Amino acid sequence: MEGRRGFGWVWGLTLAAALSGCEASEDGPQPIPLEQAQDRLQRALCEQVYGVCGCEHGSWYGTQGACNSDMAEAMQYVRSTLEEFAGGELTYDAACMGQLVHQLEALGCSPQFDPVEPQCQPPCLLVHGERQEGESCELYGDLVNDCAQGLLCVGACINPCGGDDPGVYAGEGESCELRPCAQGLQCNFQIDRCERIPAVGEQCPLGQCEGEAFCEVLDPVDPMSERQCFAPGPLGQMCRGHDQCQSGYCPNGFCSVRPGEGESCAGTQICEAGLDCVDETCVPGDPALCRVWVPVY
C-alpha cells in the first residue's frame, strides 16, 4: 500500500470530486440527522469494508466489530462535545455528515481512488462554532472545532487554502511567528519571515518547491552545495528518490516503470496503480475503501 489514505488529507474531504461508485445515492449527498449518523457510518464503512468488499489484506480497523466500535466511539465523542457546549457555541452539521457518508458509499469496491488534481478544499466540519479567521480557537478533533464552517483551528482559526487578509495572514517579508503565511508563501523559521515558495529552476534553501517540483543539491558529490528546484524526470533519468520521477519510482538510481502484477516490490513496497505489495510481491489490490480512515476525533 502507498500509506495511510483517508478523508482527512488536505483537511477538506477533497476526494469528493474523484469519487464514483455503484451504491451512492443518485441524488447526491443528503443531510443526516445526528441520531442516524452512527448507523449510517457503520453501514457505509464497516459493513461495506468487511461484508461486501472483503478486504483480504486488512484494513485500518482490523475487524468489522472494531470498526463498528470506533464509529460508535467517534459519534459518542461528537455527542458529548455538543452536550458540553449546550449553550449553542457548537453546531452539528448534518450536511457535512451526509457528504462524508456519500463519499464512503461512492467508493464502492473500486480497487483505487480515481486520480484528482491536487486542489485545496475547505474542511466540511461535522461540528463547528462561529469563531472567525484570526480568532483564538479550541480543537476537539480533525473535523470538530469551534471555528466557523470551513476554517481550521491551529491555535487561531485559519483558511487552510490560504488567504490575503493582512489581519490573519502574513505577507512576503513579514513575520510568521504569530501568523501563518499567505497562500504561495512559506515560513523561514531561521529569520521568522514569510518567503515565496520557489519554482523550477530557482534555489530552494528551505527544501520546499512549488507544485510537484523537488529540491536537490546542484552537486551530488557535495551535500553542502546549493539546492535548486527541478521537475520530476521521465523514465531512464537519473534519480535519488521516488519523488524525483514522473512515475514515482526510483529503485536503482534511474526512473523506472512501477512493478506490475507478480513482480517483486521488495525494498520499496511500490507497485503500479491498483496493486498492493504483499509479501514482497505485487498482487491485485484490495478495494480503495479498505485504506480509508475517518478522522472524526
Helix/strand layout:
Blueprint: E1 5-6, H1 34-53, H2 64-84, E2 91-92, H3 94-107, E3 127-128, E4 139-141, E5 144-145, E6 152-153, E7 157-158, E8 185-188, E9 193-196, E10 214-217, E11 227-230, E12 275-278, E13 281-284, E14 292-293
Parallel strand pairs: 1-14
Antiparallel strand pairs: 2-3, 4-5, 6-7, 8-9, 10-11, 12-13
Helix pairs in contact: 1-2, 1-3
Sequence of strands across the biggest β-sheet: 1-14
Biggest β-sheet: count, sense, barrel?
2 strands, parallel
Indicate the mean pLDDT.
83
| Percent in helix | 10-25%
Q: Strand fraction band?
A: 5-15%
Number of helices: 3
User: What order do the SSEs take from the amino end to the carboxyl end, as H and E?
Assistant: EHHEHEEEEEEEEEEEE
Q: Give a count of the beta strands, DSSP E runs of length 2 or more.
A: 14
Sum up the overall morphology in one term.
flat
Distance between the termini: 24 Å
Cα Rg: 22 Å
- Given helix and strand content, the structural type is alpha+beta
Q: List unreliable stretches of 5+ residues.
A: 1-25
